[in-house]
Amino acid sequence: MVKQQEHDQHPAMHPSRRTVIKSAAGAAALGATGALGTFSELAFAQANLRAEITKIPGVGKGAPTDADWQKVGELCLGPTKASIKEGEFKGVELSFMGLNNQNLHNLLFRGFLKPWEAYTGAKISWIDLAQADYNPRLQQAIATGTVDFDILEMGAPFEGDVCGKGLASEMPDWVKKQIDIDDYVAYLKPPVGTWNGKTYRVTIDGDCHNFNYRTDVFSDATLAKAWKDAGNTSEWGMPKTWQQVQAVTKFLKGQKFKGQSVYGYLDAPKPWGGFGFYFLGSRATAYAKHPDDKAWLFDIDTMKPRINNPAWVRAIQDVIDALPSEPADQLNADPNTTGFQQFLAGIGSMIPWWGDIGQVAKASDTSVIGDTVGFDILPGSDDVYNSKTGKWDKLPSGPNHAPNCAYLGWGIYVMARVNGDEKKHKAAWSAAAHLGGKDLSLWTVMYPSGFQVHRTSHSHIDEWVAAGYDRKYITSYLNSQFNSYNHPNRAVEPRIPGIFQYYSIAEDELTKIFSGKIDAQTGANNIAAAWEKLTDQLGRERQIGLYKASFGA
Amino acid sequence: MKRAMRRRATVGRILIGLASLVFLLVLVVQVLHAAGAIAAGFSTWRPILIVYLLWAIAFGTAQVLMRGERGQRALFLLPAVFFTVAVVIFPTIFGLYIASLDWNLSSIEGPHFSGLDNVRAMLSDAYYWNALSNMVFYSVAVLGEYAIAFALALLLSAEIRARKFFRVVFLLPMMLSPVAVSWMIGKSLLEYRFGPAATLARYLGWDNPAFFASPWMARFTIQAMDAWVSIPFIMIILLAGLQAMPKEVQEAAKVDGANGWQSFWHVTFPIMLPVSITVLIIRIIFKLKLADIVINVTAGGPGGATDTVSSFIYRVYRDRSNVGYGTALAMVYLLLIIVLLTLMLRLSKRWTQRVT
Fold first, then answer.
1. Which residue of A274, A332, A542 is in closest CB contact with B108?
2. CB-based contacts of A255: which residues, under 8 Å, 6+ apart?
3. So what's the ipTM on this one?
4. Taking the complete model, does pTM exceed 0.90, yes or no?
5. What's the confidence (pLDDT) of residue B31?
6. Which of A144, A338, A515, A525 has the highest number of chain B CBs within 10 A, making it the mutation to test binding with B?
7. B105 interface with A at CB cutoff 8 Å
8. In sequence order, what DSSP letters do the residues of A50-68 get, joined into one string?
């Protein structure tokens, strides 16, 4: 079956001078190799386009510039040209709100959309926000009814706040076809991106915590000997369970590697505007997410917090137990520190993080670990807590793994305020579809963009190798990502309103626990009590309803 | 003549009455509209501001009509009064109203009145009390800052070499943004792995120079950073005081045979007391607002050891969108500051009177 993307490519090859010349060149090339059918021509053009854009500027050839973003945007205009006439949106003005983290996100979108603006005639004004300003700005806009943007870059956790309140515009069918929505990886398919059965989101990013480790540390002969000498019966190597992570972290305290102190796992106990909670989550999911139960953070029917159940308390206790074996100032380390100032700088040998570490480890000047980093899904646990029976289960299949699908990635949403104006509605969705285009997405996940793999079509390793990636490295990286996304027991974040408030409250209490002011169970009970209070404040019945909806129930 | 004046006064009174009536009417209509009681009204509150401005103009005009030259003189003051009402008094009253609401931005029901619930919640909020107790430490530490600043001011007012150069150098920290200080000092100089201060500490025999890992160490480090930024401010004001001090008094003390300490303790210090009290009060006001360095360097940790009331309110308001509670905390804190400063001013007045 000809895929929509390929079908859309077909009319795009006729109208403009550029595509005629390109077609002619393609035909000439094909003529040289022999007669091929129309289907093959289209597939060839498609593959050609993907190969062409992924060489802009080429992996390892410096950071892409605005000119590169525009070039990629121009080359990926095919699907837009297929459904929109030139100048069709003349006079339409759209406002776009998004991030400007690390000079990426909105800055890329500007470049990608410039050719789109030139072709369609629409104009876009930009609201750029720093990560820290994002949540409050969005919350204020929602609460005060001052939504002053037509297109929004937003993470799925906010879908409860935005889609649940009817502020977003439902995705038209033509957009679903244009972006080939079926190509999304399983965990980003509905219910993610949907609310009450309606689709709202153009996914441009996939997020999960994978496990990053140092291959040189875990293959070092001296450390292997010391490990055996310490009385360990297992082989020295990358830990596969949290029990092993704990053992290795305690063992590595005081050990030397290449003449320097070596550390094991790095925790991130310092609050990070709510985002730090994901890192406790990564330690907890293997204990707390039972394969027979969708929920792991709250009970489904009552929203009773599970944060103080034995599984979560065990994860918190693990942090307490591991901290003395971590660097002396670890209490003041947030995830930014563990990822970018410690792990990439050669300190510590294991951390959970989003895919950024793998994207940056080889490409950034700040990284000293380059080739010595390996990737896997998060460690498992020998036993998993069963909330229904209140007992720890040992699964016949072996350790329980539950990758933490933290944040669920960024998406593009169109706001309901464009619904009254047909032209504006079409223009906004066309812009969103352009940014979420299948081919363009391949470029964003290969280059620094702030976005990671999120489509099945991103798993073709040959495309990555052709762009300049090392096969072994990229295979390990992509496997860690896709095996997390597609894991049958993945722990998917609840998309309920105020989710970051729950996290922020927890962070405050966790810092008290980690600094030794209170014990794990007392602290966890405090978090649970504060969460209950927050649920009541936000409206328990409604929260329960939305929580269920976020599971697609 | 008198009749004309009376007529003008009547016109003035009518003008005020009419303008006030219109203002009240529009306000009531808009409040009812906003409450959903009536359909008529404006989509935004901006027209209320315009009506307020028109009312202020009418009020000013009426003053001239009613009171002649005295009214004209009032025109110099009235704009400032109306401006203060609009941007200080009204927002404060409105803030008290917000403080009485249960309003979380994520709540679909929106704000609803909860009376003193927020204040009651505050009374049992361990984080608020912890932050308040930290503020006691930070405020007491101002005395230390003052002592250092006084010493520096004495040094810079003495006849030393390169006095002007040192005056500028000592002022530099004050010119830095606390956020820049947070990054330059807190996150770079004091950085555990590569920070020069940590390296020096290791060289001096401190194995694990973690400046923010234990509660008291973190508290002292934050205080030291804030002091580094603020001491120049105290110093410059004390220096101005020292320079304004009549030289004869010092000379008389010298003639009477007072040594350095005696002439400082019995002459300079008492004379400087009013300046000292002023600068201490200003400094404590600033200190009570301490937030930026804490938010950037420790986020209030470890375990709330460095948390300040402002950084806690920041988290409640910004990270948790808890507008009603956050405002209530801020309002209570404002009241606490006002009471504290009033008491301090009273005491200091009594004290300075006794000393002088």
1. A542
2. A223, A226, A261, A262
3. 0.85
4. no
5. 92
6. A515
7. yes
8. HHHHTTSS-TTS----HHH
